[in-house]
Amino acid sequence: MLDGVMLLWFVLTAVALLFVAVDIRNTPESPVLKWGFVLLTAYTGVIGGFLYVLGCREPLPGLHERYVSARWRQVLGSTMHCVAGDGVGILAGAILSSFFGLTGLAEIAVEYILGFAFGWTIFQALFMRDMAGGSYQRALRSTFISELLSMNLLMAGMVPMVMALKSFITAAAHPTAPSFWFVMSMGLLVGFIVAYPMNWWLVASHLKHGMMTVRPANAVSGESAHIGHAVAIGSSDAAPQMSMDTPGTPWPSVRVMALLSFVALAAGVTIGFSLRPA
């Protein structure tokens, strides 16, 4: 039965991935978020495809700006961006851990380090550096806290899910087995859900961007270009401009939320180990 479920999952994932990869080319979204939705769909299958249609796909020509301005869609874009970038490093860490025979805390540490490193230095700071005035160093500084908090919650949800499934599916420890990719997909999906509330706070506190709109100069809609925390009207390859600084003091404070994120991470790891077979 499990083999049948996995086969159905992979078939539906392939269909959803093909749809998103083709359809998103016509969506007036930032290029990095387009890649993010493709990656998210690769991780989470039809659920990622559904989130793309519900949260980002322009319902009618000229309505993308107003459509994505809703707070929950802004947070969807923020969380998707986190999971897409961090997921690449996490999967690389899982593969390397299997290759070198790492398990337990060592495996979690490798996945965390690589996930955070890729998500922060590449998907956040490098791809979004123009939003920090073109300075990569400034982008690194301005995205460190938001990436850290979001990553902690992602791992807090992913670790127990992956450990629980691996305790029942022993073949999932090997990247050559389809069950490995199924288990990691389920883990990233749960991690996405758990990280969403933290990203709500990050977006509300102007510590992370949300969904964006990027249109060619000759295709600017009549709608206002207001899209929550980012505006991008110009060439189709133009990077959106926004301030990544925090206006005022967030509530709860960054220190409190950082502490809560590490508590959640510790709780997730503890729960994960409790689900391992004796």
Quick take:
With 278 residues, the chain is mainly α. The protein contains 9 helices and 2 strands; from the N terminus they run H-H-H-H-H-H-H-H-E-E-H.
Folded structure, characterized:
There is one protein chain. The protein is mainly α. It has one domain (2-274). 66% of the residues lie in helices and 1% in strands. It is built from nine helices and two strands, in the order ααααααααββα. The chain has helices spanning 2-23, 31-44, 46-55, 64-67, 71-100, 104-126, 136-168, 178-204, 254-274, and strands at residues 214-215, 232-233. The chain has a two-stranded parallel sheet with strand order 1-2.
Lateral arrangement of strands in the main beta sheet: 1-2
Cα radius of gyration in angstroms: 19 Å
The assigned structural class equals: mainly alpha
Count of DSSP-assigned helices: 9
On the 0 to 100 scale, the average pLDDT is 89
Catalogue the unreliable spans: 221-246
Measured distance between first and last alpha carbons: 25 Å
Shape: globular
Oligomer kind: single chain
Helical fraction: 55-70%
Topology order in helix (H) and strand (E) letters:
HHHHHHHHEEH
Largest sheet: 2 strands, parallel
Features:
278 residues, mainly alpha, two-stranded parallel ribbon, 9 helices, 2 strands, 66% helix, globular
Question: What's the layout of helices and strands?
Answer:
Blueprint: H1 2-23, H2 31-44, H3 46-55, H4 64-67, H5 71-100, H6 104-126, H7 136-168, H8 178-204, E1 214-215, E2 232-233, H9 254-274
Parallel strand pairs: 1-2
Helix pairs in contact: 1-2, 1-3, 2-3, 2-5, 5-6, 5-7, 5-8, 6-7, 7-8, 7-9
